[in-house]
Amino acid sequence: MDTQTITLIRGDGIGPEITEAVVEIFEAAHVPVQWEEAEAGLACAEKHGTPLPKETVEKISRNKIALKGPTTTPSGTGHKSVNVTIRKTLDLFANVRPAKSLPGVRSRYDNVDLLLVRENIEDTYAGVEHWQTPDVAQCLKVITRPGSLAVINYAFAIARAQGRKRVTCVHKANIHKITDGLFLECFREAAQHYPDLQSDDILIDNACMQLVIRPEQFDVMILPNLYGDIVSDLCAGLVGGLGVAPGGNIGDGCAVFEAVHGSAPDIAGQGIANPTAILLSAIQMLRHIGLNGHAGRIETALRYALVSGIKTRDMGGNATTREFTRAIISGIPSTIVSPNIEEKLEINPLPLPEARDSHSQGWHTVGVDLFVHENSLPHLPETVGKMTLAMISNRGTKVYPGSMPFIYLVNWYRARYLSETPLHEEDLQQFFNALPSSVEWTTIQRLNEDKEGNPMFSKAQGEE
Q: Residue 372: inside a domain, yes or no?
């Protein structure tokens, strides 16, 4: 069997201690891997001036697989999060977080076995934020068709590969009708290609309630980025906390597996850190690269240690990191794994569709939303070029024309101008040039309709 080279990032705080436990366990289990070490995190930033050197990204990209300990992002220095930077740089679009009950780990539940797949790049985590006025901050929720289909197709593909039965889309499309609506639309489109799997959807708020009432009703869950971040930690809580929660970040060509908990600098060097989460992540990594037999042997040894009551303090035991590691090593089955077990799961997501532009889809521009900075209801021209002022809203609620609603008005208004006929680029330019110089605009947003005349934009509360 060929030896797989894996990039190893030991990280900060307890990172070096818990990654060393994995290295020792892999060596004892004769896992056919070799490690190529790379640096990232706080210590790296102090040494090299950056928490994520170019060389580290190159090593991950070359080896295709990495195991990463927890890292600390320096505060107040302008450095970006190591985790976020790795995900975005390598386009690791799927965050895969198993939540499975472990023997001997205290929890309110004992029958949880679900797989959470979180979109990892887009949503509010795209980081597109602006100050619109001194009182108004804006964050764009970016949901794209290719980004959604990439992670949704992966969720269906891994569900099929693991022999699971059902995939549930978690969303808030009743409120975020366009963004979450697109994610749900992509889910329903992908589901048609997997008739062997059950598919359904649930609102995010109801999903959280159902998870704490009866988590065993779920199998595979697919979520946009923000909801996935929150629900993945909720699911970790169902099985004992972040100390037993593994995670993998999966892309088209690379994958990075990591413990999702923090670097815990307060207990670093004391020899009491719990390596379970990163060991489970390493087991997840082995299954990803097809070393299922080795993954099973190590998981069996981990579960035996837990059942035997050998646990670190955070799990209710009194074992040190070293004692816990030795207990796992002593329990590794000696059975030689037959070659046919060492097969990589065939996870074959559907190819992404080609990009579509508005012209090919028959979209046409019918107006603009003009966002302006004013301390009171702005006095704007009723007509500018081909467009007429249809309404003004504040914080998403219509305030003109008609009676003023009983809401607190902030100094940021949206003025919607619409045309009865389709607009061309020169019409939009004329609109912009014709605006009075006294209008302190912050943003202009084009408004489109599709070829059937359906608006491709949302209405304000109170707008007919």
A: yes
CA dihedral 455, 458, 462, 464 (to 10 degrees): 10
Q: What is the pLDDT of residue 361?
A: 85
Give the span between the Cα atoms of 103 and 166, in whole angstroms.
25
Which of these three, 238, 265, 293, is where a domain ends? 238
Asked whether residue 164 falls in the same domain as residue 205, the answer is: yes
Name the 3-class secondary structure at 142: strand
pLDDT at residue number 242: 93
Query: Would the CA dihedral through 447, 450, 456, 462 be positive or negative?
Result: positive
Domain assignment present for residue 103? The answer is: no
Residues 336 and 416 in one domain: no
Instruction: Measure CA of the first residue to CA of the last residue in the chain; give whole Å.
Output: 67
* Closest to 299 measured CA to CA, from 18, 31, 1: 31
Does a structural domain hold residue 313? yes
- 188 and 261 housed in the same domain: no
Residues near 286 by beta carbon (within 8 Å), at least 6 away in sequence: 31, 292, 294, 295, 298
Same domain, 73 and 135: no
0.85 surpassed by pTM:
yes
Give the Cα separation of 66 and 278 in Å (integer).
12
Range from 80-94, 116-130, 410-424 carrying the lowest mean pLDDT: 80-94
* pLDDT given at position 291: 94
At residue 119, the 3 state secondary structure works out as strand
Q: Domain for residue 128, yes or no?
A: yes
Q: Could you list the beta-strand ranges (E) of 260-409.
A: 364-372, 383-384, 387-394, 397-400
CATH number of the CATH domain containing 266: 3.40.718.10
Contact 269, 9 (CB under 8 A): no
**Structural domain containing residue 332:** 1-91+240-340
- Are 77 and 99 in contact by the 8 Å Cβ rule? The answer is no
Which ranges constitute the DSSP H helices of 331-419? none
